[in-house]
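Appendix B. Chain record.
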Amino acid sequence: MFGFKEYGNGPLKCVELKTGKVMWEKSGYGPAGVCLADDTLICLGDMGQLSLVKASPKNYEEISRLDKVINGKCWSSPIFSDGKVLIRSTAEAACLDLK
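C-alpha cells predicted for this chain:
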C-alpha cells in the first residue's frame, strides 16, 4: 500500500524489489494494509473495504471484494490465520471466516 495522506485514493502497488519498477497499481485503497495468504493478497482499504487480489507481478486481478466490512478508519494490516481474517479500525474489529 502506498497511500500516505492519500485517503481513499492511495494505490496498492506491485513493485519489483530489485529495480523499484512498478509492475502494476490500483488506486482506491488509501493508507491501509495488506497481507499475503498463499497466492492471495488480503487488502484492507482505509474506508473498510476488503479485497482479495491474486498475488502476481503480471497484473491486478481482483478475486473478490466487500465494500464496507467495518466502520471507522482502517490503518492497520489484516491478519490471516487458519482460514480467518482479523481486521480492525478506529471504531470496530472483526473476524471473517474465508473458508
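Further analysis of this model is presented in Appendix C.
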